[in-house]
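Appendix B, example 12.
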Amino acid sequence: MNTPTRDHLVQQRPELSATGILPSQAIRSLVDGKRITSQIPIDNDQIQPASIDLRLGREAYQVRASFLPGKAPIAQKIRDLLIQRIDLTGSAVLAPGSVFIVPLIESLALPSDVYGKANPKSTTGRLDIFTRLITEPGHEFELVPRGYSGPLYLEVVSRTFPVVIRTGMKLNQLRFVRGKSDVSDNRLIKLAETERLVYEDDETQLEAQIERGLRVSVDLQGSGLGSNVVAYKAKNHTPPIDMENVNHYDIDDFWDVIRSPLPKGLTLNPRDFYILASWERISVPPSYAAEMVPFDPSIGEFRIHYAGFFDPGFGHGMSGIKGTKAVLEVRAHEVPILLEDRQLVGKLLYHKMAKEPDKIYGPSIGSSYQQQGLQLSKQFKKENSEQTSSTLGPTLAPQQLVAG
């Protein structure tokens, strides 16, 4: 009698045999089946509706430059480019502009028909921290090949702020996919006929504008935000931000606040980082996930998103809300770019889930941004910047400074 293989046993489970993005219960099965492994037990809080949060390991390597994957083993690349090794078991401050390679705690032994795609977490993107997942071997950033078995590494570059990191922190997340998950425009149009995908601020349903994905525009008037604040521009030369602190830092110490009206629009300086919001309120039904296209040269020479994953249930009516604004993490590339109110800035691609997840995005699972308007990362105090004091709070304890 033939002994069933692990791949065969995994595929007998309905939530693991359908095509699409694997849901939370399927990810849990991958953990139970030793397809996702770790020397430190994987916490259930790491498992999101359509992804798993990955954790930083015990050390980081500051290197002279980023490198393209696939030409040589990662260990050799680190040796060739190494500036210094950093212990993360305490904490370390990463200086802006420096490149770090961090081995992650989790490793993989995927089924032969499952691949992965990674993105920074929302908080990571809103702090202008650029991360890219690397496999060994691998030929593309952020992509885990089908059937991959091996360790995971993360390239980390903080673009603006000094940030405090330590072992176990979660800067990025990984989705798992079987087969094709992409939703065509025709299918998205049909979905929009039965599900409400976009709303105005008064919760009136809008007609979804669909062309190679759901079209997303920018809000420069503060529509429905209860405030005339329409953007934040990151300051340079700030104190460090400890990513473990929540509702801790005063906005004015780290951000320039941009208010409406802006009769001539907003000009993006290519050296600066901005947080803006979409004009539309977006909804992602529980049987779907979505991803913001970070850069589309047909729209403009700017990047609008680092953390592009939108979970099943984001802004959806079953959470008691009618749409949630998408927060945009924006950088112009080479030249200044003028943005105007309600101008098209990006596209949201929808993907089908292999099965509806047993976790849905929202406050019940600790999601931080379900009812957001124009919202900074969770490290910053939520009071209006005019009401916050100028103090930063307690002085950070002495930490290892990793200079650029």
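Residues 1-12, 384-404 have pLDDT under 50 and may be disordered. The two ends are 61 Å apart (CA to CA).
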